[in-house]
Amino acid sequence: MCYNGYNDLRGETKVEKSVLITGAYGGMGKATAKCLRDNGFRVFALDKTVGEEEENLIPIQVDLTDEADVQKAFDRVRSVTDELCAVIHFAGIYMLDSLVEMDSADFERIFRINLGGVFLVNKIFLPLLKKGSRIVITTSELAPLDPLPFTGVYAVTKGALDKYAYSLRMELQLKGIAVSVLRSGAVDTGMLGVSTTALDRFCEKTKYYTCNADRFKSIVNRVEARCVPPEKIGKKVLRILKKSNPVFAYSINRNPLLLLLNLLPKRLQLWVIKQVLKNKSEASQ
């Protein structure tokens, strides 16, 4: 079991275990870092932009797409401890665009960050993971589902990340290291503003689609409407670390509309989305 922080006779939490969190200054990462620190862990907080060092929270600025930079982060962690209880991944970006119109550089970038960054961190930090350690990878509730239009590239990276995580679990079980994914739904991290801005930008620039922005926004808003606070993610991760035998997949705040859509046959899914996204002129024909 990864968790074993404890209180001494004065009620002060002692640190016995160290964890590494990527994307530690985003909404979910920051909440999880605080939760784990408050529960007796030393937290190495990795992100591209970091804050000041705090008690039992060590910030490390790093570009997760740069192998040399990740190696420097490893050296910094190794100078403090020779063992990590867990590596927890939150770093990632959201992108909304057409698969036939998006810039090639953007296509490559989202894979480098959402999938490649996880690969580099796990590969480089593996020497600090001993038997009983954990790797927790945040994918998405979309990972096992069929993607919605224009969110395809994001869903594909998260789906690939989910498959990567399962393959890694297959391998690392031989070393006594457990790998789990956290398939989170909408979390109140400001992502709704990012997604609506991206949608507006897409609808302005697209040449192939007469996109009804209001209709698609309604889908996005419904998906995001049931946001949970990021603190729930932190508590969920803590529970995973406390498990003696963690399972592969944990879900939180799954959207019932997405689940219902994915129960339909593929052909019917396509028809429903086509009807929803038809612009007014097409709908009247």
3D architecture notes:
Helices cover 46% and strands 17% of the residues. With 285 residues, the protein is of the alpha/beta class. The protein has a single domain (6-276), classed as 3-Layer(aba) Sandwich (Rossmann fold), CATH 3.40.50. The strands form two sheets. Strands 5-4-3-6-7-8-9 form a seven-stranded parallel β-sheet, with helices on both faces. A two-stranded antiparallel sheet has the order 1-2. It is globular.
For the structure shown, list the relevant keywords.
disordered C terminus; alpha/beta; 9 strands; single chain; Rossmann fold
- What is the level 1 CATH name? Alpha Beta
Low-confidence segments, given as residue ranges, are 6-11, 280-285
The residue-averaged pLDDT reads: 85
Q: Helix share of residues? A: 40-55%
Number of helices: 10
What's the CATH H-level homologous superfamily? NAD(P)-binding Rossmann-like Domain
Radius of gyration, Cα only, in angstroms?
Answer: 20 Å
Strand order of the largest sheet: 5-4-3-6-7-8-9
Question: How many strands in all?
Answer: 9
CATH topological fold name: Rossmann fold
Shape: globular
Order of helices and strands: EEEHEEHEHEHEHHHEHHH
The tally of domains stands at: 1
Largest sheet: 7 strands, parallel
CATH architecture: 3-Layer(aba) Sandwich
Rounded to the nearest angstrom, the distance between the terminal CA atoms is 62 Å
State which percent range the strand residues make up.
Answer: 15-25%
